[in-house]
Amino acid sequence: MREREFWLLLEEVLGRSYGRALAHDQGLTKLHGMTVVEALEAGVEPRTVWNVLCDQMDIPDSKRWGKDHVAPPLPVDFQ
Description:
The protein starts with a helix and ends in a 15-residue tail after the last helix. It has one domain (3-64). The protein is mainly alpha-helical. The protein is built from five helices and no strands. The protein is globular. 54% of the residues lie in helices and 0% in strands. Helix 1 (3-14) packs across helix 2.
């Protein structure tokens, strides 16, 4: 997943305003409290950030990939 795809998916699944607010404000426990924006800037794979955010927000697999998206493979560093 590229960062551009991440932002499109975030807006589709969470809505533009709410998704962007979460990206700037929500600390991600599994990523040492970094926000989405901080994690992406630190070089964390967008797919990893997306999965951590979705897990933390209890977004089920059936909804986390949007209407027409297929889940990309997990990066090696995802736990």
